[in-house]
Amino acid sequence: MDSKWTGRESRWLTRLRDHLRNLYLGATPTAFRFQFAVVAIDLVIIAFFIATPVLRETPSFLWLDYAVAAIVAADLGARLLASNDPWRLMRQPTSWVDLFILVTLLLPATLANLGFLRILRLWSLSRSGALWRHFGRGAMREWRDVSHAVINLLTFLLVVTGFVYTFFFRSDSGIAGYVNALYFTVATVTTTGFGDLVLPGIAGKLTSIVTMLVGISLFVRLAQAIFRPFKVYFPCPECGLQRHEPDAVHCKACGHLLKIPDEGD
């Protein structure tokens, strides 16, 4: 009897994994609609993370927080089931980010000061295979690096804004404090330095220095992504080099013969 139930559970789990694998990794119209829905839900969750400083004092905040935790946990669990190598998936930085976000959602009061790091979900989304499997084709491939650079910069701005709000502008209630933190961050990253808002003490000076240095580096990275020559993504079967000129016949790293498909293929 036990072996019969075990066999049924094993078959049910296998069917579930196959179904999830088709949804998360497939290229069918149904899979595309599912992946598009996942991306849309991710964007709504990110919007919730950005609005958290304003929503934190509302009566419904904890309900929203735990609902988002349930969605993040379900998505992470489904991805693990769909993966051919769950342990490899868990070793990826995007999975670490999701786990950290899940912990902050489950312990919103204890880890309130780390809540600003939830916006790293935006960076995690930009590395999502589902996002680029369909939207990274054709002419969009040319803008993939630019998109990554823009998202990196935006994520940095929002993380620093959350940090500055949490540790320096928390006394200002609601939206006013968050806008002040965002204003300070943008003024610092762009090195405008109006001086009407400054962070007090040594910690404030160090925060400003780090913000300027990293922000300038991200701006340079964005400029490089915009102005450098366009290359296509096509992993070399021999050495794994992923970026090549559109008309490349051989891999410039190892000389292996490439068969890069045309835009219409």
UniProtKB/TrEMBL annotation:
Residues 156-227 form the Potassium channel domain. The chain crosses the membrane at residues 32-51, 63-82, 94-117, 149-169, 175-199, 206-227. Keywords: Ion channel, Ion transport, Membrane, Transmembrane, Transmembrane helix, Transport. It is found in: Membrane. The keyword Ion transport applies. The keyword Transmembrane helix applies. This is Potassium channel family protein. GO terms for biological process: monoatomic ion transmembrane transport. It is a multi-pass membrane protein. PANTHER family: POTASSIUM VOLTAGE-GATED CHANNEL PROTEIN SHAB, VOLTAGE-GATED POTASSIUM CHANNEL. It holds the Pfam family Ion_trans_2.
